[in-house]
Amino acid sequence: MNEPLIAPSILSADFARLGEEVDNVLAAGADMVHFDVMDNHYVPNLTIGPMVCEALRKHGVTAPIDVHLMVKPVDDLIQMFIDAGASYITFHPEASEHIDRSLQMVREAGLKTGLVFNPATPLHYMDYVMDKIDMILLMSVNPGFGGQSFIPGTLDKLREARRKIDASGRNIRLEVDGGVKEDNIGEIAAAGADTFVAGSAIFKKDDYSRIITDMRERIAEARSA
Ligand SMILES: O=C(CO)[C@@H](O)[C@H](O)COP(=O)(O)O
């Protein structure tokens, strides 16, 4: 099992102080920055684009930036985020006309890539591209907004995704996003996730270090049980 990674979603950060917020959450022990891109078309919200990713790099952020594209179509923005300094680029299979080609674009640029599955999206989209993905992201809420409740059926879906990853023999990260909190992160880890996106659970707290440490402890407890 991969070492667990905590990826705060900057969707819940104070955008007026974004550089400082990202510095603070990384100094508090976060492993990477989860960067939610929404187009008010594929999802009913509008957020940030490649200029903000580039600005974070210019600000001095060296940690991995995990770009989650909630846009349709995806290919133009993939290229822009490659140029802007993304580390991971994940997208929804329904948002690409040519999933294999979109994955290939990211890989040829030397970045890590992956597919994102909404709560009702079946996992079979990954079946013929397992050799081209580094991450599978299961949405545990319907995408578009922070602060929603974790959909419990995601736990079974995580177990199913974990079986597929293990059967592939490849080192693919299993990320979960939506409603991840300190009181459910243990069972999410036990279901097979190794990469944990949390927005409001971290950014709505005063002490980022305490919540990230608490999350790590609960993951470790779940793994040793
Ligand atoms: O992509 C999304 C929502 O579409 C997420 O990354 C949210 O930003 C997670 O927020 P919390 O549920 O952790 O508050």
UniProtKB/TrEMBL annotation:
Class of the enzyme per the UniProt entry, highest EC level: isomerase
Cofactor notes: Binds 1 divalent metal cation per subunit.
A GO CC term assigned to this protein in UniProt: cytoplasm
Pfam families associated with the record: Ribul_P_3_epim
Domain of life of the source: Bacteria
GO molecular function: D-ribulose-phosphate 3-epimerase activity; metal ion binding
Alphabetized NCBIfam families for the sequence: PRK05581.1-4, rpe
The family this protein is said to belong to: Belongs to the ribulose-phosphate 3-epimerase family.
Listed name of the protein: Ribulose-phosphate 3-epimerase
Species assigned in the record: Vreelandella halophila
Gene name in the database record: rpe
